[in-house]
Structures are given as C-alpha cells and as structure tokens.
From TrEMBL:
PANTHER family from the UniProt entry: OXIDOREDUCTASE HTATIP2
NAD(P)-binding domain mapped to chain residues: 10-141
Top-level taxon: Bacteria
Database matches in Pfam families: NAD_binding_10
Name of the featured protein: Putative NAD(P)-binding protein
Xref: InterPro entries: NAD(P)-bd_dom, NAD(P)-bd_dom_sf
Amino acid sequence: MKQKTAIILGATGLTGGILLDKLLEDERYHKILVFTRNHVRQKHEKIEEYLIDLFELDQFQELFKADEVYCCVGTTKQKTPDKEIYRKVDFCIPATAAKLSKKNQIKTFQVISAMGADEHSRIFYNRVKGEMEGAVLEQKISNTYILQPALIGGEREESRFFESVFKKIMSVGDHLLVGSLKKYRSIHPSTIADAMIHLANNEYRSGIIQNDEIKNIAEKEKK
C-alpha cells in the first residue's frame, strides 16, 4: 500500500488538531505537512511543520505538495470583528490553498465551510463562506469536498463564553430537533475529522456535504 502525504491548514484549531491526531495514527499516511503561524502541540516524526504567515501562503508553492489538502482554517465574528481580516481568514486562505493545489496537481481538496453559506446572502459572514465555496469549486480539483457542519461542539483552548453557553443550550436542544430540523443538530469535531479521512480514502461524489451527510460518512470510517 502506497503511503500518502497530507497537508493540514488550521492544525492548531479544534477540528484541525483532532484531524492531525487521527492522521498521525493512520498507517495510510507517512508524512503530514503543517502550515501554521504557531507550533502544533503534537510532536511526531510524521510531522513536517512550516511556520508561516498564512496570508502569504501563495509564496510557498514549492513546499505545498502532497496527495491531499485539508483546510480547517476559520474564525468567528467574536474572535475577528474586523471584517477585512475575517475575509482574509475565511476566504483568502482557503481560496489560495485551492489554487496551489490545482497548480501542484493535488487531486483531493477538502475545506470546512458552514451551514448557511451563500454567496448571495445579505449576512456578511454567510456570504463570505459562500464566496469561498465558489472560489474553491472554480479550481475544478478532481476530488473536492466542501463540508458544511452546523454548530461545532467540543472545547477550544481560547475562551468563547457566549459560544460555550450556546453549546450547552444546544446539547439539550439537539434532542428537540427532529424531522426536518434534525439537520441543525450540533456536530463534534471528531466526527468532521472522521468524515474527511473517509472521503480522502474512498470514492465519493465531489461537492457540498451537509451536516447530516457528514455524520453518516463519519460512521462509515468508524466501521
């Protein structure tokens, strides 16, 4: 079995960190390239870490070579109130990563977007996510997977008080979301990571993958 190389953007974040843990334990991968502004917490012989300014990712095309790219970068309105910087994080970094993937003939590109992403939305944050999705799809990478999770659960290192309160409410409210509302149930970052790994290693149609579908795919990876 040919072992693969993966690139992770956002490995210091909640979902990206869990994904990194899983890939380090996965025998299908022999090297994980991490492009990040800060050191990852993991120490492992598989990790090849590059400390860079992700806003200047386009300058590192020669290093940006792998079998797969996992783009897990993202911010929030509370963490990044400046809309210009928010757009650089949630649009420019994924869009640049997709362009580099195309140039370097990387066949699999995955990015975490969000439920409600819509390039025509009047809501700035939803519109940015939608525009990012369009920029990624525009590259026509063979295996492109855009994941649209609902609220992501789990504990982050940084404090997000209101998000934490909302998650506690959702942990109870999830049970009330049934029928057509079930798709709005929160999702654990480990579930997203499992789904991404399954998509990278199995045939699946390219495109947008919504919350419930992410959960179904993740279950297949656990079997």
